[in-house]
Design goal:
With 568 residues, the protein is α/β, with parallel strands linked by helices. Among the domains are: 43-60 and 69-209, Rossmann fold (3-Layer(aba) Sandwich); 471-567, GMP Synthetase, Chain A, domain 3, CATH 3.30.300. The strands form 8 sheets. Strands 1-20-21-22-23 form a 5-stranded antiparallel beta sheet, with no helix packed on it. Strand 6, helix 6 and strand 7 (171-174) form a beta-alpha-beta unit. The radius of gyration is 23 Å and the shape is globular.
Length: 568
């Protein structure tokens, strides 16, 4: 009965999802930009019930298949393993509601079992980049204090060091392989997720409220070290409803023999992969082909042999598709849409792809942040005469405005300012960080993105620059403050400043300016290696320059724009 009631509610919501007759902007306020789409109506249902409301259509279909190992889960197996894992968290490990589970995993079929099984137990998941090193793991663990840490054998040693550095007592669970031993004291994933029974009576009692935290991904926000972002159940349910609008819903519901196929190269630990790829496509019954480690050869093989219908990419992958000599029209034969996000993409790069595929697919762009659950703007399906430099219109229930960063006052639509976003997908705040939360969220609920841009009603959102300090490398956030603190720990470094410089393939790359201590010496290569040994590969310093002075404000804040003018 509950499922029938929810299905009826979803159908009613779908019938309401039509283009609004209102204009892009509120006529009573020349500064506010509204969505052209009908506002969503939040379902009165638990998140996982909403996620699986259509699953009777596709229980026997493949949900996930690993591109490397070929391991698969059907939707039936996925839901069963999630429930077993959730039961293990509560009964085997004694976790309580709101306890934290860390998952340091590549894209693999086991990831959603851990992620959504954690939620099914009433616990909170913090996803961690699997290429992180001891320093980065320790920071995230110290902030979130997980009770369970799930990872792969290849990451075990660095995870152990990170936990020891953080003085964490978290139990380690390894994604094990058949007949392969695991270190003493480590728990096998297969024993707590793929065998045993689920206690549905226990799990059915879990009823998290809209404002309860579901996920704590990490983001650098506008400045400083990475911070935990509080993604709530309200954010996730709103995300599902927003992605269901027929004007921006790219997957088609699996029924009968039809099933959309989606290569998953965007990491699940990232909000784009977690919300858009997993939640948005599992809800529709798609087949997700998980790619643990990206390589052009494997990706092109998937495009050719798996016959994918939807491609989700970031700018470096879009550039590869347009410029790589081995990419041919046949690679796009079954593709309906390519959707790009995470960083701006030039219109010329889009045209290069469209020329290769002879215009037989639609290219869409979007904009979002971790703090907005990745859902802010998108180009709508079927739009004509798209400006490929733009990132689309506000999605359903999203409101935007642009604010003069100097005066704090809203500017008229069309003028440049800092983008502010209000939506039911905006985070609750930064985890255990009241100061940063207060600095990032306005009293009336807008998130200050730190991105500079403008809006043209006939074209959409344009992002032109960042007033925040973050460096975007391949769509991933790099915080200058994190790299600067590592550089300052080197015995030869007196002071350090890091800025982002343009990079042909990565978008941006970190460049460091160093004042050496008197009497000390170090080569650029030595400092680059010093940092590279402590951080994930995408954070590596591209260039080191020794200087005599680093411009700062009277309060000691580094003037990064001045540095760029002087040296970059």
């Amino acid at each position: 009965m509950a499922r029938k009631l929810l299905l009826r509610q979803i159908k009613e919501l779908k019938s309401m999802r039509q283009l609004s007759t209102s204009a892009f902007l509120n006529k009573n306020d020349d500064f506010i930009i509204k969505s052209p789409l009908q506002d969503i109506v939040m379902p009165n249902a638990r998140f996982l019930d909403r996620l699986w409301v259509e699953s009777s259509h596709f229980k026997k279909h493949v949900a996930l298949e690993c591109a490397e190992t070929k391991k698969t889960y059907t939707y039936e197996q996925l839901q069963k393993n999630m429930a077993i894992f959730a039961t293990s968290l509560r009964k085997k490990f004694g976790l309580k509601e709101d306890d934290v589970v860390a998952a340091m995993l590549p894209n693999c079929p086991e990831f959603p079992v851990v992620a959504f099984g954690t939620l099914q137990a009433g616990c909170v998941l913090t996803p961690i980049n699997p290429i992180y090193k001891e320093f980065e793991i320790s920071h995230q663990v110290s902030t979130t204090n997980p009770k369970i840490f799930v990872t792969i054998p290849e990451c075990y040693d660095v995870v152990l060091k990170g936990l020891e550095h953080a003085k964490s007592q978290a139990k380690i669970v390894l994604i094990d392989k058949p007949n392969k031993p695991v270190p003493k004291g480590v728990i096998k994933y297969s024993e707590i997720a793929e065998s045993g029974e689920a206690d549905y009576a226990l799990l059915d009692k879990v009823d998290k409220q809209n404002d309860d935290i579901a996920f704590i991904p990490f983001s650098s926000g506008t400045t400083g070290l990475p911070k935990g972002v509080e993604i709530t159940y309200k954010n996730l349910k709103a995300g599902i409803e927003i992605m269901q609008n027929e004007r921006n819903s790219f997957p088609i519901l699996t029924q009968g023999d039809f099933q959309d196929i989606v290569p998953c190269i965007l990491p699940f630990f990232h909000i784009y992969g977690l919300v858009i790829t997993l939640i948005g496509h599992l809800a529709k019954g798609c087949k997700l082909v998980t790619v643990p480690r990206f390589s052009a050869t494997m990706y092109l093989d998937i495009l050719k042999n798996q016959k994918p219908t939807l491609l989700y990419v970031v700018p470096p992958i879009a550039i590869l598709l347009g410029k790589h000599p081995d990419v041919k029209e046949e690679h796009f034969r079954h593709v309906r849409n390519i959707i790009c996000g995470a960083a701006p993409l030039a219109a010329t790069d889009v045209q290069a792809i469209l020329e290769k595929c002879k215009g037989n697919l639609e290219f869409n762009q979007g904009y979002g942040t971790t703090e907005t659950s990745a859902l802010t703007t998108s180009t709508l399906k079927g739009s004509k005469d798209l400006d490929y430099s733009a990132s689309g219109v506000p999605m359903a229930s999203v409101t935007m405005k642009f604010v003069d960063p100097l005066t704090g006052k809203a500017v008229p639509i069309g003028e440049t300012g800092e983008l502010y976003v209000k939506a039911p997908t905006v985070m609750r705040g930064y985890y255990r960080n009241e100061k940063e939360t207060k600095d990032s969220l306005t009293d009336d609920g807008y998130f200050k993105t730190g991105d500079l841009g403008y809006y043209k009603p006939e074209s959409g959102l344009f992002i032109t620059d960042r007033i925040k300090e973050l460096i975007k490398v391949k769509g991933m956030q790099v915080a200058p403050a994190e790299l600067e603190s590592i550089l300052r720990s080197h015995p030869a470094v007196q002071e350090a400043a890091v800025v982002g410089i343009p990079h042909q393939f990565y978008g941006e790359a970190p460049k460091a300016f160093i004042i050496k201590k008197n009497g000390q010496s170090a080569s650029p290569e030595e400092l680059q290696t010093f940092v590279a040994d402590k951080v994930a590969a995408f954070k590596k310093i591209e260039e080191v320059v020794f200087v005599n002075d680093i411009p700062k404000t009277s309060s000691g804040k580094i003037l990064r724009k001045e540095l760029k003018k002087m040296y970059a």
